[in-house]
Amino acid sequence: MLVALGPLSTDLYLPSLPAIGQSFETDSGRVQLTLSVFLVGFAFSQLVYGPLSDRFGRRPVLLGGLALYAVASVLCMTVQTIEGLIAARFLQAVGACVGPVLGRAVARDIFPRDRVAQVLSYMAMAMALAPALGPALGGYLQVLFGWQASFAILAVCGLLALFAVAVALPETNGRKDASATRPHRILANYRTLAGDSVYRSHVLTHALVFCGLFAFISGSSFVLIETVGLSPDRFGIAFGVIVLGYILGSFVSARLTRRLGLERMILLGLSVALAAALPMAVLAFAAPPNALAVIVPVAVFMAGAGMVLPNAMAAALGPFPQMAGAASALLGFVQMSAAAGVGVLVGQLSDGSARAMAVAISLGCLLALMNFLATRSRAFPQPVPADAEVQDPVPSSRAS
Predict the structure, then answer these.
(1) Residue 285: is it exposed, middle or buried by C-beta count within 10 angstroms (0-12/13-18/19+)?
(2) Average pLDDT per run of 10 along the chain, which is 400 residues long?
């Protein structure tokens, strides 16, 4: 539930983006700022939540962030201007990011390194239910009640998550660091992470693939609703079909990662994603906008992304159990900052076709594959046997 909070906050109201533009009498680029600003707030807040949770524990930080999320969601549904909605979305992001960043840290707290990728893959499957069901639900909410209804649902989800953490989630951080929030320690931890070539490689691979995913999220409603002509509720169904590809990729990852190893699964996922993205870009330039020419290749791209993202994340976080919060936060910061920039570009370069979106997805996949092949680490060269007992040491050169 915690890792799904971020995707739900972006995907539930996607069918309402054109209606929000009409309601506030503004253009699509300005409406898409409600997505990009959300990612900016999401990115920077992670840099704070990670060290806070390493110092005080996951539970109290989660409670504070979720309370802020619920309040900000109410603000989103009551604002009277597009500027007010953009500002409220920023506050909503500050609260929302506590779920994914600490949800990943909780997984790293509980499970040994050889199982983290498998667990994150199963978490990704659960997380994908939010974008699979969110746009469909959001489309019907838009048709029946208007765009404010989606934010009302998000407020309820925030309150439910707050209640669930309060009654059901024990503290999982057994290695609290009293100095984790000191400025020099924060900088030292982030410097240690940024100086690790394995961490950098996997974080960049993760971020570039996510940029392609977010290019679709930010541009899909305008392409499929305004250009192709799908109704908001049909768009939600189409979006759900596409996300099934991500669920399938995550399922394959969960089943095969311990047999093939992290690196091979990442390479397989990148190959699948690029094989789908390039033909979509060609079709976007060669033919008029068509629903199938968007839905089919994006669904296959999502399957590849479902293989890449949890494995790249596990490879990045695995060597740093003592600073799992900081490692998760920095990964999320890079991921969301890059995606926010891509979202702005897709909005500004959109010409009413699928070209800007398709090019962004293809470039993200191509650059991710180039980075991975150029910096392929030797940290996980062999598959981990399913019955192996793997210890979880912390190399002294990486411990801060």
Answers:
(1) exposed
(2) 84 84 80 84 82 85 93 92 92 90 81 72 71 76 87 93 91 78 81 86 91 83 77 79 86 81 88 91 78 86 90 82 76 82 76 80 91 68 44 39
Give the count of alpha carbons within 13 A of 136, CB side only: 13
- The full set of domain ranges for the chain reads 5-170+181-374
pTM of the model: 0.70
Class of domain 5-170+181-374: mainly alpha
